Amino acid sequence: MRVDEISQNLDTNIDTGLSHATAEDRLRKYGYNQLEEKEGISPFVLFLGQFNDFIVWILLAAVVISGVLGEWIDALAIVSIVVINAVIGFTQEYRAEKSLEALQKMATPFSKVMRNGEMHSISSRNIVPGDVVLLEAGDYIPADGRLCSSFGLSTQESSLTGESTPIEKFTEPLPNPSLSLGDRENMVFMGTSVTSGKGTCIIVTTGMQTELGKIAGLIQEAGKEVTPLQHKLEVFGKKLVYLCLGIVAIVFLLELWRKDPLLEAFLVSVSLAVAAIPEGLPAIVTIALALGVQRMVKRHVLIRKLPSVETLGCTTVICSDKTGTLTQNEMTVKKIFANSKTVDVSGTGYAPVGDFTINGTPLSETDERFVKLVLGIGILCNNAHLKKDHSAWTVLGDPTEGAILSAAAKVGLWKEDLQKTFPFASEIPFDSNRKKMSIVTKTPHTSLLVCVKGAADVIVKDCVKIYTNGELRDLSEDDVNVIVNKNNEMAGDALRVLGIAFKPIDPEAINPAPGIVEKDLIFAGLLALIDPPRPEVKDAVNTCHKAGITTVMITGDHKNTARAIGEELGFLGNEVKVIDGMELDTIPDEILEKLVSQVAIYARVSAEHKLRIVKAWKKQGAIVAMTGDGVNDAPAVKEANIGISMGITGTDVTKEASDMVITDDNFASIVAAVKEGRGIYDNIKKSIHYLLSCNTGEILTMLFASICNLPLPLFPIQILWINIATDGLPALALGVDTIDPDIMKKSARRSTENIIDKSLGALIIFQGFLIAVSTLFAYLYIFYDTRNENPGHLYSWFLHELIPCFSGARLFGDLERARTVAFSVMVVSQLFQSFNCRNANRSLFEIGVFTNTKLLLAAGISLAMQVAIIYIPYTRHIFKVVPLGLQDWIIVFGFSSLIFVVMEIIKWYKRKGV
Asked: What is the b/e burial string over 389-416, where b = at least 16 CB atoms within 10 angstroms of the residue's CB?
């Protein structure tokens, strides 16, 4: 079909697009432009999955055995524990699933469409049949469409056709209606991307009706993404299970040797196995990662791939673009070099308000004519749109091009008016290798006009003539020297300089090749734009240096401009260099690998240079974060350990290749993301530390009691309850703890570092030992207290009570009360331990007791649960406990606080360096 037939068929207009009202009606009719998602696991199946565990099966077997032996209370109690544990596990996993779903929905792509005759950027899911979509290099195609215009447009369709080379696109009708997808050269398809050129298309099908929608089931089979940390924990968990089962087996044999009933020995061993294995840890890690990622959104960071959260904490090098990332991305034309004179332009931002002067004097008529020539070419060679929304002026498109539109409007030149006289004919889009772009327009005469803008030092090499003082003459060597010196002068003032050139051509002689169109040009002038540095970036760069992170600026700007900005922001330190792309081309890869750590700024670089820089840093063992926005940046972004795309100026292809998107294009947000990444990892480590130290305390308590031939201080049902009361909530609260304010004063951790190193492993065992000692001492103290009127002589107690235990002597004190106290000490000491785990070196009082209210709430709930089962008559019977008096609670808190007091003393000694 012809384009006009399709336009008529879909009741749309290729120039003005759909009206907003029509688009709304069609959205209701056709639905959202998205693929139907594969249905997730139902909550019921997720709940049943909690019982698919070897330890749970053993517990259920214990229930059957208890029932057969008539121990119905034990049987019911164990069933209740299993169900409660399943509910807690289900809640954690369900919350983790929902957090991940919310995370996936954040990365919504946008498309540029014509609505009511104006360009709008809308969510791609709101596109409907009949929408006219504008396509540029780097865009993902949002739905299936028929091309209306194509200027050097090529697309990458390998996701549909398997063909790896780009397909050149045209607008003419194709005679064969049965062509394969790869041969439909006038169509573009959802899920493919634009590799070069630009064009427009009319959307013909959306969502599940697209070619991609027809095979949607094939792309929904990807499994869940497992992060390196989760994989490490899985491996570690298996080792932990074997170790715990070995200890549990020892306890079981000791209990049999003491001639305890087989069922009791079995239940104690199974209960210990349940307590020893932190089965809630994977869900806690997932929740901590997902909630941390959602927290990053508030800091303008969108994480696309969960493993990158861990890598962020290891980042040692950040390679950043300059424009918009280190600067404010609010370009303003400040100077114009035209007719051999430098014109100053006043005004800031995009508002078209300002004056043009030369040395403080208004422009003459001649000078104004030359300024209009330079700006006129600048707005014809331009894809941006200057719009007024309410009282604010905004730019849709590239900020540099928007600044040119604003400057031109200050002298009464408007793009829409000029394009009526000089309508668009064709375009050679900008790319980072050529460092320029060209647009060919029609003119009121028979000739065409070529308008070119780009890097000043590149443009001047393409020029053979100059228009100055009202005449067209050959460009002399002196002219070139003047232009180059003026470019260097303005670049040294941290201005971004663009060269402007043009030439008329005969319509029959036009050759679309850049090498022909962009040669033998007429030099018109220079535009110097300022993009002020972001005020927060200097502090962010300083923070990086304190954190042991190297900062590198990579820009396409002139070397002098890059140096001026770099010095102002603190990139340039002692013995670091500034080099440009030409110098980089002369350096072999093996030399660059040794030199890369000495270079802080790269200017005039191409996409290939960025890729080489990333590879050179990685060869040095660095963990590299690389920013990018253009389609040509995608290889370097993908090669980096952390690929970062720009949310405002970034192309869809670069975003797809990246691990994270900075939604405000701000370098400070990258540094904030690194801090959050370190904090998330640190908090997960706190949760692991807490769970393992508490579980170690439970195992050692039972092991020491068995070895000392003591009556077991804890019943199996009590051990299971401790697992519920103390494992879940405090561990989760530690996973979302406030980030250590000193975390960016430490060096980055190694990516190969084990989460449980030797020092942490030793600390876990030591703290577990303290929990066990506190519990056993409280347990034995109650025995001694019930048999002596004057307690407190520990030496006598040690001689007459503890030592006989090894020879088989039994204690005949108040066993129920002693066990209740021991049970409570085990719970409360673990709650004290949760506060120890907040920081390995700093005191809780220095951190602030109330800086993690979630942990306070979690500890309060756990303590309330423990008190409740002691004083509620029914639960008291189930858990075999007796009510405790005030003196008992003083003993409980006294012994429980031992671990907290000891650790605070150790932290004090560490801080003093003793």
From this structure: eeeebebebbbbbbbbbbbbbbbebebe
Same domain, 399 and 453: yes
- DSSP letter assigned to residue 633: G
Q: Is the dihedral of CA 882, 887, 889, 892 positive or negative?
A: negative
Q: Identify the helix (H) or strand (E) that includes residue 662.
A: strand 660-662
At 299-320, the pLDDT tens digits run 888 887 777 787 888 899 999 9
Its pTM surpasses 0.85: no
Whole-angstrom distance, CA of residue 6 vs CA of residue 337: 48
DSSP string, 171-229: -S--S-TT--GGG-TTEE-TT-EEEEEEEEEEEEE-GGGSHHHHTGGGGG-------HH
327 contacts 533 by C-beta, under 8 angstroms: yes
Domain assignment present for 52 = no
User: Tell me, what CATH number does 150's domain have?
Assistant: 2.70.150.10
Last residue of a domain, one of 648, 665, 682: 665
| 204 and 338 fall within a common domain | no
The angle, 0 to 180 degrees and rounded to 10, between the axes of the packed helices 667-707 and 537-546 is 40
Residues 589 and 626 in one domain: yes
Q: Is the CB of residue 193 less than 8 Å from the CB of residue 141?
A: yes
Q: Is 653 found in the same domain as 734?
A: no
> What is residue 732's predicted lDDT score, i.e. its pLDDT?
85
Identify which of 48, 62, 47, 49 has the alpha carbon closest to the alpha carbon of residue 717.
62
Cβ atoms within 10 A of the Cβ of 573, count?
Answer: 10
CA atoms in the 13 A half-sphere facing the CB of 190: 26
**Strand 436-442 versus strand 448-455 pairing type:** antiparallel
1 pLDDT more than 80: yes
Structure tokens of 630?
A: 């253009």
Q: What is the total residue count of the chain?
A: 914
| Distance (Å, whole) CA 712 – CA 255 | 9
Catalytic-role residue among 74, 139, 144, 321: 321
pLDDT at 450: 94
Residue 378's CATH number: 3.40.1110.10
166 phi-psi bin (left φ>0, alpha ψ -120 to 50, beta other)? beta
Looking at 214, 248, 278, which one is the last position of a domain? 214
Same domain, 138 and 115: yes
Number of domains in the chain: 4
Active site residue 321: yes
The residues that bridge with 552 in the sheet, in sequence order, are 319
Is residue 659 a part of any domain in this protein? yes
What does residue 492 show for φ and ψ, rounded to 5 degrees?
A: -65, -20
pLDDT, average across residues 317-337: 87
Q: Which residue has the tokens 């220095």?
A: 846
Residue 538 sits in a domain of what CATH number? 3.40.50.1000
Domain that holds residue 157: 3-37+109-214
